[in-house]
Amino acid sequence: MLPSGKMPGGAPMNVAIHLRNLGNEVDMISRIGTDDLGRELLQFATASGLNTQLVQQGQTHLTGVVKVNMDDKNNVQYKILHPVAWDYIGVEDRAMEKVKEADAFIFGSLAARSEHSFTTLKNLLTHARKRVLDINLRPPYYDRETLLFLLSQTDFLKLNHHELAILSGYLSEPSDTLEEQVLALAGHFDLEEICVTLGENGAVLYQNGRFYYQKGFEVQVTDTIGAGDSFLATLISEILKNTPVPSALAKACAVGALVASHHGATPVISEAEIINLLKN
User: Fold this and answer.
1) pLDDT, tens digit, for every residue of 50-65?
2) pTM of the entire structure?
3) I want to staple 67 with a disulfide (CB 3.0 to 4.6 A). Which of 79, 88, 114, 202 is the partner?
């Protein structure tokens, strides 16, 4: 719910739509209410090309709503209502089969805020090939114990530099520099890849014992909603195609910047726009 009106969104759906826009086959696991907002979301997701067969519907809880404060367009504030339908995602055999078949299973930490959805997430994680965690620390919906468990179940971790500092503080010997914090997390949780987003300053990716750096791209910011989600979608898409890391990271940063220059979380970004920004 934005000051200008309602808009379909939510990190997992944003990532899914951007992955689909990049030509990937995507299934989304979630839950909505049998209310008007739920029907609108389902129509929007379907029109965006997503397979919504794994989106559950229930009458007990309303579709999820987030109230957004955009007084600072570079630091958008969110109030996430609780409890809502996606706090009650159930275990389904067909979802487990899809996770088993998938090249990557992307999940967010907010899915663990309720015991019901957290139990389902734990079940699905046991079947995933490549487990991609998009940390999304929204007070008061996280705690140390839950986050440490999620990190132990992760292969690829994506987070921002503020979240990196918080997670680093959970370790017995907190580190000072970004690189030291990343290495400590990778060593403690046996993480294969860690990507840290730095806002307008770009991103850093740690993979196979090596750090890769990419500066940000200069654009006129409209709003930053969905920029990080489009970044993650692009990066995972390119990594699964075995694109060289520097090129994958550059493209991800370019798409994130372009999304920030558009209104809303899931604008369609053309290949021509991406190429033009990368060239300039």
Assistant:
1) 999 999 999 999 999 9
2) 0.95
3) 79
